[in-house]
Specification:
This protein is an alpha/beta fold and 416 residues long. It is built from twelve helices and 15 strands. The strands form four sheets. An eight-stranded mixed beta sheet has the order 1-2-4-3-5-6-9-10, sandwiched between helices. α3 links the parallel β5 and β6. It is elongated.
Length: 416
């Protein structure tokens, strides 16, 4: 199992901190995990459940809602509706960079959020909740003693899980306006409900309310003596095991089955790149580079779905990263005070006759413009030398040298 950290733009453009837990091989499907009220993606239960699912072949994206954990924004300006929008932004990020989530999992208020968001994620095939309230307004009981002050002053500081948070009147108005039972009734996805009968934070009656509102197929799993946050390792492990087994029944598709039948190209020798169609959209491609997985596509104007950078974008990225790395290694060897290097590149086609230094005189040629920005306590001679070194990066030299591309046909596996 491996894990990747990154950020993505939330519903209002703020950067949300995220972690993607991945299995060793190709994921059978992607899942999206929503954490509990005022928690974070790194709470123990979220970590252990995500890791457990990854160990069983699922990739799991967990992230911090706006204003929580390592995400940007002010918690006081958020509400249940903004949580739903953050979930949709997370699903869109997965859709563009990897694959849209087929499974939604939510803990506590995060469970209510995935129930509300599922209908707006068409790729979602199954939903699971853990200790979720049947009504988002349930969370207001955490600060009942401050409610009058919030109504009177417009906001108040409350203590939640031993930490101070500011709750505004708009938060109360938003949760009061939610009609979650209607969303659950129209879910039209298989639903699995986990709940502990002795949960003192969200009573078992909430699980009953969700179960009654939902249509079949629906399932309930009792967590016996577990607490609300699943602090005991064995409880979180149990949820992951049952959830993975249950989800496997609903996430098997012809596409997943055909992908599993193909050899997994990850982990190949260094220097080997494998590109394979994703099967999603017209031009979308998976790019496998060792254990790394990228995506390539074309913009809508050229018939693609804009789910990843274009082939020329990737070419510029190779040249730009090679340029920056080469200058960094040279500066380190010389012990120069290069703080940061930035390389900006553009690709275009120009008429050959407009190029004074080109041997080709007819038709059009490719032109790459490269702008290099160097920051640090460097004199002019050092800056000039680093620009000279930029032209010596291996990718730059490859683009200027004679390149032989040998194409061979690889025998395709026949299916009986």
């Amino acid at each position: 199992m491996r894990s990747e950290k990154f950020t993505f733009p939330g519903s209002d453009g703020q950067e949300l901190a995220a972690r993607l837990d991945l299995p060793e091989g190709r994921p059978s499907a992607y899942a999206l995990f929503a954490h509990c009220f005022t928690c974070s993606k790194d709470i123990f239960s979220a970590q252990r459940i995500a890791q457990g699912l990854a160990e069983r072949g699922l990739a799991v994206l967990r992230f911090d809602f706006t204003g929580l954990g390592h995400s940007d924004g002010e918690f006081a300006n958020t509400n249940f509706s903004s949580n739903i929008q953050d979930l949709l932004a997370a699903a869109e990020h997965l859709r563009r960079t990897y694959e849209a989530p087929k499974l939604l999992v939510g803990h506590s208020l995060g469970g209510a959020a995935v129930l509300a968001a599922a209908g707006d994620i068409p790729e979602c095939q199954a939903v699971a909740t853990i200790a979720a309230p049947a009504d988002p307004a349930h969370v207001a009981h955490h600060f009942t003693d401050k409610r009058a002050e919030i109504e009177r002053e417009g906001e108040a500081e409350v203590q939640l899980a031993g930490r101070p948070f500011r709750i505004k009147k708009q938060f109360l108005e938003d949760i009061a306006a939610q009609r979650l039972a209607e969303r659950v009734a129209g879910l039209r996805r298989p639903l699995l409900i986990f709940h502990a009968p002795l949960d003192e934070t969200v009573s078992i009656d909430n699980a009953s309310g969700i179960f009654v509102a939902a249509k079949h197929p629906k399932s309930f799993v009792s967590l016996d003596s577990a607490d609300h946050l699943l602090k005991r390792k064995e409880d979180a492990v149990y949820v992951a095991e049952v959830l993975a087994a249950w989800a496997g029944r609903y996430l098997r598709t012809d596409k997943v089955a055909s992908e599993k039948a193909q050899p997994d190209p990850s982990g190949r020798d260094e220097g080997t790149v494998v590109v394979r169609e994703t099967g999603e959209g017209f031009l979308s491609q998976h790019v496998f580079v060792g254990r790394h997985r990228l995506r390539a596509d074309e913009p809508f104007a050229l018939g693609g779905d804009d789910s990843g950078p274009t082939p020329y974008d990737l070419l510029l990225a190779a040249l730009g990263s090679c340029t920056s790395m080469t200058m960094r290694m040279y500066a380190k060897r010389k012990n120069w005070a290069l703080k940061t290097a930035q390389v900006t590149l553009n690709h275009s086609k120009i008429h050959a006759q407009d190029c004074a230094d080109c041997e080709t005189r007819d038709g059009k040629i490719d032109r790459i413009e490269r702008q290099i920005r160097l920051e640090g306590d460097l004199d002019e001679a050092q800056r000039d030398k680093l620009l000279e070194i930029a032209d010596k990066c291996p990718v730059h030299r490859t683009l200027h040298s004679e390149v032989q591309i040998v194409t061979q046909r690889e025998a395709a596996e026949t299916q009986g």
